[in-house]
């Protein structure tokens, strides 16, 4: 056996051994997903003297090769192939080499660009009537077209070794060396997706298995969240009070927590410096006249005039609008916060239009409507005395629309505070002394003249008649 034949047999034995090793080490992998198909198409000359000069193969030849390979270990692959080399010459028959090959290939990925490869192949070569050893070595690059397909250039150098019996060639050396370069295509069978790994564990070690644990990386701790299985109970505002107990879960309780609301800060909504839980009037600043008997409150003025309360035209019905709701709510807030006000008067006043009797009845009815509203909102009936003074007590004696608007009013006057008569309290006016309710238990102040009926209307003048003749409008018309 010649040296070249021994080399071929040794290479084949090595390839088989590597394949067997692969089968043993990767028995759990699917072999089909480690296969690839490779094809080459190239051109090149015969470069040996004997073939190019003596035999006349001095033109370009072509190569067409198909191979199938199997990944063995890492970058190493074994492959089987069929090669067809063809050279043309001017005279005589063309040269042809058919070869069956076995070989090794190394494939080295280059990032996402593709793969560099190099291979070595040997096998019997059929040329004419002779069978001789054929070997070749190749180098190429596959640019990644897709995840499984690569296309790129290659170069290959082949050798057809001399006949084992020199007598067949007349003693001449008939080795042939040839070269080809061109394009190669490699297709790797796509790998099967990995089998899903199903693990039922308890990564955070809190006794709740991962599929049921909503916080798989965080132990539930000694105070688990009742709404989130496997999670610790939260403290969103970081004030040390757990959310399930915190009445203000998104606001820290701060340095001065509210003793009546766990987890809440002690607010000062009215900004008067008195914390809400101590402030008897948390929505009303105590300045500028603090009430000495009620912390955080201010002492109400004896006469409380909160603004106009609108009624339906010539009616005792309170208009349901935002202005009235605001004014009446202010009154309700004051008398709710100041329980020391034991008795107060609700005074109704009209302008000078329409008859005296009508205006007195209308103003009295409107005062009672305000009383009824306050009773419905928590103020005790016994604390209120409604009174109607009609047109007798104007604040503006003029006979104009602006004066009439000022004269139509409802006023609250404090009569008793903490059981004592309110100093300086006056009700109605001297001209309407007979209309002051006895329940107030007070005597009207002396007449100033400005509030008298004659000074107000000029009863003996023509102006009085000109305005009182407008009876249709009603003294209480807003």
Write a structural description.
The protein is α+β, with helices and mostly antiparallel strands and 478 residues long. The protein has two domains: 3-188, Beta Barrel (Porin); 303-473, 2-Layer Sandwich (60s Ribosomal Protein L30, Chain: A). The chain is 18% helix and 28% strand. It contains seven helices and 13 strands. It has helices spanning 3-25, 49-54, 322-337, 356-376, 401-407, 453-457, 462-468, and strands spanning 35-44, 61-73, 76-87, 95-110, 114-127, 130-144, 149-160, 176-188, 303-304, 341-349, 384-388, 409-417, 420-421. The strands form two sheets. It has an eight-stranded antiparallel beta barrel with strand order 1-2-3-4-5-6-7-8. Strands 9, 10, 11, 12 and 13 form a five-stranded mixed beta sheet that branches. A hairpin with a 2-residue loop joins strand 5 (114-127) and strand 6. It is rod-shaped, with a radius of gyration of 56 Å.
Core attributes:
eight-stranded antiparallel barrel, Porin, disordered C terminus, alpha+beta, 2 domains, rod-shaped, 60s Ribosomal Protein L30, Chain: A, 7 helices, 478 residues
């Amino acid at each position: 056996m010649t040296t070249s034949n021994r080399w071929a047999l040794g290479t084949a034995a090595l390839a088989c051994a590597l394949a067997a090793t692969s089968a043993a080490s990767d028995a759990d992998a699917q072999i089909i997903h480690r296969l690839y198909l490779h094809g080459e198409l190239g051109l090149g000359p015969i470069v040996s003297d004997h073939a190019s000069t003596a035999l006349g193969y001095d033109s370009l030849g072509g190569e067409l090769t198909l191979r199938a390979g199997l990944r063995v270990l890492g970058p190493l692959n074994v492959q089987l192939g069929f090669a067809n080399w063809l050279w043309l010459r001017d005279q005589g028959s063309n040269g042809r080499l058919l070869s069956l090959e076995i070989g090794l290939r190394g494939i080295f990925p280059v990032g996402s660009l593709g793969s560099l490869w190099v291979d070595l192949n040997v096998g019997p070569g059929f040329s004419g009537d002779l069978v001789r050893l054929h070997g070749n070595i190749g180098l190429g690059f596959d640019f990644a077209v897709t995840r499984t397909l690569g296309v790129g250039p290659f170069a290959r150098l082949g050798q057809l070794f001399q006949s084992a019996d020199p007598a067949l060639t007349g003693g001449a050396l008939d080795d042939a060396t040839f070269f080809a370069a061109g394009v190669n295509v490699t297709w790797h069978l796509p790998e099967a997706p990995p089998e899903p790994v199903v693990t039922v564990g308890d990564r955070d070690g809190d006794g709740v298995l991962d599929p049921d644990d909503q916080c798989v990386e965080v132990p539930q701790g000694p105070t688990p969240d009742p709404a989130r299985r496997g999670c610790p109970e939260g403290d969103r505002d970081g004030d040390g009070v757990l959310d399930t107990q915190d009445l203000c879960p998104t606001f820290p309780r701060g340095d001065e927590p509210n003793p009546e609301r766990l987890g809440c800060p002690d607010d000062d909504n009215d900004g008067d410096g008195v914390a809400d839980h101590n402030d008897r009037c948390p929505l009303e600043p105590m300045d500028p006249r603090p009430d000495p008997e009620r912390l955080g409150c201010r002492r109400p003025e004896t006469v409380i005039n909160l603004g106009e309360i609108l009624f339906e035209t010539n009616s005792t019905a309170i208009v349901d609008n935002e202005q009235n709701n605001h004014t009446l709510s202010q009154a309700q807030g004051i008398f709710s916060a100041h329980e020391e006000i034991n008795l107060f008067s609700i005074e109704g006043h009209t302008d000078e239009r329409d008859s005296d009797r009508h205006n007195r009845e209308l103003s009295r009815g409107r005062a009672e409507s305000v009383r009824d509203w306050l009773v419905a909102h928590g103020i005790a009936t016994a604390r209120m005395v409604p009174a109607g003074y009609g047109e007798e007590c104007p604040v503006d004696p003029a006979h104009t629309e602006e004066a009439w608007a000022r004269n139509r009013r409802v006023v609250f006057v404090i009569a008793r505070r903490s059981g004592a008569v309110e100093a300086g309290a006056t009700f109605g006016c001297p001209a309407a002394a007979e209309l002051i309710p006895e329940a107030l238990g007070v005597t009207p102040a002396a007449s100033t003249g400005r509030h008298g009926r004659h000074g107000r209307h000029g009863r003996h003048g023509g102006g009085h008649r000109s305005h009182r003749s407008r009876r249709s409008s009603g003294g209480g018309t807003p």
